[in-house]
Write a structure and sequence with these properties.
Low-confidence stretches: none
Order of helices and strands: EHEHEHEEHH
Radius of gyration: 16 Å
Largest sheet: 5 strands, antiparallel
Helix content: 40-55%
CATH topology: TATA-Binding Protein
Strand content: 15-25%
CATH architecture: 2-Layer Sandwich
CATH superfamily: TT1751-like domain
Length: 138
């Protein structure tokens, strides 16, 4: 069982980030955190690294439902989306599979929320890939 969903697109890194954020918004996610690993490694370790951005996304309605059912679920939040540029210039967009990450919690509401999050995140990844393909840039 894989723990993520991914698509790879042939677009500029910044364009892939903007597209991903827009699609997340369409699925009622808010980006609540951004970690620029390239910048982090440069500042902390003086190392060069490829463009690699970690987005923390939250769907407030689903998060609220999960927190009502299990108050420690916050340890598994927010949903993580990673954008990374590969050597060939293409950008891979990956999202966590919440069903896999939350499988240790045996609460029916949490399981339902995880399934809904999985559906949304799969749709986000598919839609970003489709958007790039429709624009002729995959």
């Amino acid at each position: 069982m894989t723990y993520h969903f991914s698509t790879t697109v042939n677009m500029r890194f910044d364009d892939a980030v903007a597209c991903t954020k827009e699609v997340l918004k369409q699925h009622n996610f808010r980006v609540v955190s951004e970690i620029d690993m390239k910048d982090n490694f440069k500042k902390a370790l003086n190392l060069e690294f490829r463009p690699y951005l970690v987005l923390g996304a939250c769907n407030p309605q689903l998060t609220y439902r999960a927190l009502q059912a299990e108050d420690k679920i916050g340890t598994m939040l927010p949903c993580t989306i990673v954008l990374q540029q590969h050597d060939d210039g293409r950008v891979e967009i990956s999202a966590i599979d919440p069903v896999v990450s939350m499988q240790a919690i045996t609460h029916v509401v949490v399981s339902q929320v995880a399934e809904e999050l999985r559906s949304h995140l799969k749709s986000v990844i598919d839609q970003v890939g489709h958007t790039a393909k429709s624009a002729g840039i995959t």
